[in-house]
Model the fold of this input.
Amino acid sequence: MKLYDVTIIGGGPIGLFTAFYCGMREMETKIIEYLPFLGGKVSYFYPEKTIRDIGGIPAITGEELIKQLEEQSRTFDPTIVLNQQVVGLEQLEDGTFLLTSHIGEKHHTKTIILATGFGVLKSTKLDVEGAEKYEGRHLHYTVESLECFKDKRVLISGWGNSALDWANELLPITKQLSVVHRRNEFSGLERYITNLRNSSAAILSPYIIEELHGDGQNLSCASVKNLETGKVHMIEADEVLVNHGFLIDSRPMKEWGLEFQKGGIKVDRFMQTNIKGIFAAGDIASYQNKLHLIAGGFFEGPTAVNSAKAYIHPEKELKPIYSTTHF
Done:
């Protein structure tokens, strides 16, 4: 097995930018991603979402952002492994690490940077009898193409940031937009909530979807139930978009001896975990006053890389590296 300087677990936005910076530091780099494509949560759930909170980029779709990040990450030719979840971790006598994937493949590395987001993500499915008949056609857990919803009657279930984002994105192109939420207290960015309240969208709370109606191929409407009164309403709908959150599988990492706090892995200001040689960046990294922004992860990744470089070569002075050094 080839021994890599650093193995990045996670091929989302932070993992991709981290890989680029590893190349800047002339480190042999490998990325291991669970999904069959790069981009992580952004590619899986938000390819059409407009992202506006990265400095210098007024607006960019998730798909375009990942396209640019992937191109950037390949600048120094890292090794990329897809369709593998790392489940086993062993530190060898020489201090290096041996990683084992769910298919039994081994990966040998001097250091590890965890950029897994919160873990392996899967959408929470709509708990309605017969809903699976419409999955992949008219029942959606992500938006792969806005065209699918154009001039349609769309029902969105959920009221976190994801549901709010999609509601505001879809509002201008849909024939009719309805949003149901199981609570009266809404969570999410205030601007998105205000925009939606001042729009033509029908907002129903506290409601849940009780039944989907159609011929097994196409939807016609949905029954929604008021959780306070028990009254049921019928809402016409051609497409249903569900944002009920994610199921997160972080069990393998919890067996490696890492210290967790507030759902993430505790790190210090060097992005170092409690296991020397293992670092974390992005959503999985937890520290005081953490701000979960992609832009924040773009700082944490290079910090972890510099720390990994210093860990491998403690005898050398760590000099700052900028893009102008190479280009």
User: Anything to note?
Assistant: The domain at 3-121+247-325 is CATH 3.50.50.60 (FAD/NAD(P)-binding domain). Residues 294-312 form the longest helix (19 residues). DSSP finds seven helices and 22 strands in the chain.
